[in-house]
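Me: Here is a favour to ask of a fellow structure person. Could you put it straight underneath, so I can go through it closely?

Assistant:
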Amino acid sequence: MELKQLEYFVAVADHKSITKGAASLYVSQPTISQQIKLLEEELGHPLFIRHAQGVELTDDGATLLRYALRVLQNVDDAKAEIQGAASSHGTIAIGVLPTLTRSILPTVIRQYQRIHKDIQFAVTEGSSQRLLKSITAGDLHLALVDLPLSDPLLAVETLWTEELILITPHAMPMPPGPLSLEQVRHLPFITMEPGYGLRDALFRMAQARGFNPHIVHELTSIGAIIGFVEHGFGISVVPERTVELEIQSRRIGFVRLAQSNTRDIGMIWRAHRRLPDPVQTFLAFLRTYGWQSK
């Protein structure tokens, strides 16, 4: 059993596809297929179930994955220690939802850099699904996403809970809140495109009240949602702190919602792999940050 075989095996397990695993490592599909076959022959057990959509780990494959991740992490840790990679300097690659880029993350980063002046950040904005894939592929150290989220390859910690409100065109007459979402089921909704947790939250809330929202626009930024609501194209459900300025400036109206009107935000990273020292220090900062008071 060789390290390269374990790297190939983990890539296929991450992507649930031999083709995608090979592409992520810039090697040919036959090369990975041959190495996986050699691993299975050496262990005497199949590691994957092959099907038309890709591959799935067998029970034996899941066992090997746990050990393979530890082995590869130990190798990375040894390289880091010998080469002196552990330091207070560096760049932290962090992914974030569009709803958190307007004020929350910039504020956090600026406050952190006042203390740790040598740390830089590479920020990637995307949907929860995209950020999850980037974490498992090793492209990001951390990501701030909406929860719940369950994946054996990920470590997950909840950071804060935020209130979701209904935003409307400013001139639209609405009954005083708290308002049940069912009372506006007849109105057109604007939300994020599939893959974004905010859209999932809207559908969870609506389906709990026995209906699916009528979606007229699916967008990729919170700014676009605000613009379409402001110009009368529909209503939307968004985090309150994301639209505080627009509410104060009377660009849009809002109504508070009754029942199950919150979502959890948390941080995720690749489980079973040691994070670089600068990332661990930033994680500790995030855990003690006064989220609910911001």
Q: What stands out?
A: The CA atoms of residues 96 and 144 lie 5 Å apart. The first strand starts at residue 48 and ends at 51.
